[in-house]
Structure formats: C-alpha cells, structure tokens
Amino acid sequence: MSSPTPTAGDRVDIERGATRPGDKIFSGTATGAGVVILLVLAGVAAFLVGQSLPAITADPSEIQGGNGLVAYVWPFVFGTVLAALIALLVATPISVGIALFISHFAPRRLAQTLGYLVDLLAAVPSIVYGIWGAVVLSQAAAPIYAWLEENLGFIPLFAGPASATGRTILTAGLVLAVMVLPIVTAISRDIFLQTPRLHEEAALALGATRWEMIKYSVIPYGRSGVVSASMLGLGRALGETMAVALVLSVSNVVTFNLISTTNPSTIAANIALNFPESYGINLNTLIASGLALFVITFLVNFAARWIVGRSGAKA
Question: N or C, fewer C-beta in 10 Å, the chain?
C-alpha cells in the first residue's frame, strides 16, 4: 500500500516544526559549542605564539645549545615523529586484525569479552604504560636488541651499540603502540560492524570465501574509518608525555639507530622533564617547542581529514 502524498498543509507543518523553540535551542547550543571549540583553539594558538616570540626573536647564543631555536627544537621534532611512526606501523595492522576477528570471526561471547578488554586497555593511565615499558618491556627487549646488533648490525636501524638497559626509542615506540592499539581497534571494529549485511551476503552468494568477502566488501567499506582511527592514534602518540619520559632520557640528537644507547627524545617528554626548573628564555624555548608540536598535530589532523574526504569521494 503506497503512502499518501504530503499535502500543502503537511508541508506547512514541517516548516513550522523547523522554527519550534526546541529546535532553535538545539541549533543555538550546537552552534555555540562549535564556536567555543574554535575560541579555545584560537586562544591556545595565541598563547603559544605570544609566549614563543621571545625565543623566536632571541639571539641564537641565548638558546640552550647556542645554535638557535631551530637547532634546539629539530631533534625533538624528529624524535616525536619517529616514535609516533613506529607506534603507528606496529599498532595499525595488529589493531585491524583484532577488529576483524572481533567483528567477523570470533563467537559472540568471545567477541564481547575481547571488546570489553580492548575498551579497558584504553582506560589505563599512560604512566602505568610508562612504568611497564621502563621496568618490564625494556628488560625483555635488551637481549633482542643485542641479537639485532649482532645479526643485523649492517642495517643502520640496528647498528648499535645495543643498549644494555633496553630503554631505547624503539622501546618507547612499542609502548606507544600498545597505548594506540585500543583506540584504533575500537574505532575499526565499530566501522567494520557497520558494513551493510547485504554486501556481505551478496559476496558469499557469489562464491566468495569469508576472507574474500572481507577483502572485497568489509575492508573497502571501512577504509576511510581505519584511516581516521589511525590518525587519531597517531595524534595520541605524538602528544604522549609520561610514558616516553619514563622510558627515555632527554637527549638532543638525531639518529635513525633504534637500539642505540643514544636516542632522540620527544617534544612532550622534554617539556615535562624540564618545565619545572625552567625560567626566562629557557621557558619560552620550551613553549616554542610546544608550538611546533601543536602545528604538527594540526597538520596530521588536516591530512587525515583530506585522506578521508578523498576516500569518501572515490566511494
């Protein structure tokens, strides 16, 4: 039975509904929330720029190290990006695999239990991850780093000398990977569960195996969501402080050697460790490095939105 065609009176009622007090309040609240976010973001940016100006305009000899602001900040930018990339490269494939297992392979009860455990991992404080990385993971990784130096030392990434304590940039990246994993897994799982059931059944009806159905129906549908989840995890890794600070000591170096005793540090860890006793131009220098981290995070999120937009347009 076909539904009746809307009359002119119905259209008038719909237009009146759009101007009801409740709709106006909701629209105004939503608009106000968006404006508040923009104001807070602008306020943070203005504060960082204002407090960074003395360091930006200072004579290079006044900056710690005596080589200027760029020379001081660049090694920490390098360490921040390197640790975050290690975390992303390790966590993303594992997270996607766990998400696919929970959404399409595991029995319902097991899937629910694993889902709760993944969500629980996201609630663990970062300092707990840092203690685990500094005490447990680093000690377990030290023999592996020695083996890598002995057998793969010809590769610059494992040139050594291997750290006897295991507290290296690779260990910090692995700790960040564990922290990022529940975020990427939870979002990817929800995206995969939203795949239209009709698409999956059509692929299976055409003779596809379960893996082929996932490859041609589920993964393409959730690609943009996985990219968004990965970028959100990358943002978490870029800004992490205590977990990295507990694993690494502050060293202003640039090196791709992942297992050496000398490691680059991150912007956030450097600020956390040096901020309490800093004053004057040194404080402005730390805030300037925070401005660099702010810009990096903004660019990462902008790139993520661009990638998701292109994926949606192609779909």
Answer: N
